[in-house]
Amino acid sequence: MSTDPLPILQSTFGFPEFRGVQRQVVDRVLAAENTLAVMPTGAGKSLCYQLPAVALDGTCVVVSPLIALMHDQLRAASAIGIRAATLTSVDTDQMETIARFRRGELDLLYVAPERASGESFRNLLGQAPLALFAIDEAHCVSEWGHDFRPDYRLLRPLLDHFPHVPRLALTATADAVTRADILDQLGIPREGMIVAGFDRPNIRYMISPKDNTTRQIADLIAEQPGPGIVYAQTRAATEKLAEALGRTGRPTRAYHAGLDPQVRARNQADFVASEDMVIVATVAFGMGIDKPDVRFVAHAGMPKSIESYYQETGRAGRDGDPAIAHLFWGAEDFAKARLRISEVEPHRQAGERTRLTALSALVETAGCRRRILLKHFGDESPENCGNCDNCLSPPSAVDATEVARKFLSAVFRTGQSFGVGYIESILTGQSSERSLMNGHEALGVFGIASSSEEAALIKPVARALLLRDALRANDFGGLEFGPEAKAILKGEAEVALIVQPKRERRRRGGAGA
Ligand code: ADP
Ligand code: ZN
């Protein structure tokens, strides 16, 4: 018996046709085959289980990691007449939901993994027909994934308890290793994996080193009309940046978990309704928000991983019109990320390191950004995409090996405890009370990079050395050698700096902090 999903797509969801791989996924699910759908953000994953939930008899159980996400989904599904409910600790109508489920009155039942894996939930599920298990954000099941949740591991016994109920795992972000692991963990066959193309051709990828981030983002805002999201790393940074950017004249709001819930909800609603607002947010913002006309996403600091970068930038331009993703990075971001990795459980470090390396390759490249990004997700792409900063204005490479050696020697001679600014003053031979007191003016490295060409390379060199782990920064900004330092000092490795051409920027009066 085959169900034709198209009439349901049109009548219930109001869409004329399926997009991308939706049809393939839905067909597998309707044929009761276990499936993993890897689809980028905005590709329309929810429909892949919502439509079968409507088409099939019985309830579709949706496992989802976040209560806020479940409630967003619930609202959207109810709005189009799907019979849905959530079963979470904050719901006051749990008894009613359970009764509705037992009477077979629910198309969709959303639960968190910790509840889903419990025995009482399993007993409950035995009391009414089931259509499907949908496991959203399925990368959470994998220790290789970027967001491992141990509770996801406990789902398998539940799934196996109902062997005839098909499983649909969904994720937006999973590299090859993670995908294979998801299949294993959830008992889905290899041929059950459907991967959508990851390219978002209308997004222009831009990456620049930080150099007064507020000013850089203000410039971006001045250039780029339409709604935008700026990601900052901490709550305090969010508020400070929102205030500074507010002075550009664009309506600006902050968004983070520490705000009063009402203020937060209002800021979000204002943003969704607005045609020119800039929202400065921590990364939690954007999950489950359906705003197709976001014209830019800026990162005022490094994302957690290349997956996060893809997911966060993916919130730009869902309507298919041109949009910009601009990342501003600092070498200290990488140093901090490395430190963080050294503190996670040992068996997870390799995976985390791979993801960080992928991110640094993306930042460092003189080639096409899109190509590197897509390669990470296993997509082929042309050599030159024509829509990233490097393709649009190719950077040139400068050999900075000599300056890098001088820099490393100065770090070594001064005892591996001073910061970039001090090392720079030593190399350029600027006398100061501090360098006199330290006796550093007598060192051979004092003033050995005093020509203006060399002096101009010192800061970029320091950044490059930190990025490649030839230098590490301690908590006080003091520099010490990292594992890559030796090869450079011994002349076994070269240091090329990528110099991006200065881009013309239209300045508007008053922009910036
Ligand atoms: P994801 O979870 O993959 O990020 P969503 O399920 O939130 O994506 O869907 C993104 C947007 O695309 C939503 O606004 C949704 O209504 C819309 N959408 C989904 N499927 C279709 C379709 N076949 N045609 C048009 N719009 C669609
Ligand atoms: Zn490119």
Automatic annotation (TrEMBL):
Domain Helicase ATP-binding positions: 26-192
One GO term of the biological process aspect: DNA repair
PANTHER family: ATP-DEPENDENT DNA HELICASE Q1, DNA HELICASE RECQ FAMILY MEMBER
Cellular component aspect of the GO annotation: bacterial nucleoid; cytoplasm; replisome
Top-level taxon: Bacteria
Pfam families (alphabetical): DEAD, Helicase_C, HRDC, RecQ_Zn_bind, RQC
Ranges for domain Helicase C-terminal: 216-360
SMART domains: DEXDc, HELICc, HRDC, RQC
Reported cofactor(s): Mg(2+); Zn(2+)
Record-stated family: Belongs to the helicase family. RecQ subfamily.
E.C. no: 5.6.2.4
Keyword Isomerase attributed: yes
NCBIfam families (alphabetical): recQ, recQ_fam
Residue ranges that the Swiss-Prot or TrEMBL entry lists as coiled coil: none
Gene name per UniProt: recQ
Keywords carried by this UniProt record: ATP-binding, DNA damage, DNA recombination, DNA repair, DNA-binding, Helicase, Hydrolase, Isomerase, Metal-binding, Nucleotide-binding, Zinc
Protein name: DNA helicase RecQ
Catalytic activity annotation: Couples ATP hydrolysis with the unwinding of duplex DNA by translocating in the 3'-5' direction
Enzyme class: isomerase
One GO MF term attached to the UniProt entry: 3'-5' DNA helicase activity
Lineage: Bacteria, Pseudomonadati, Pseudomonadota, Alphaproteobacteria, Sphingomonadales
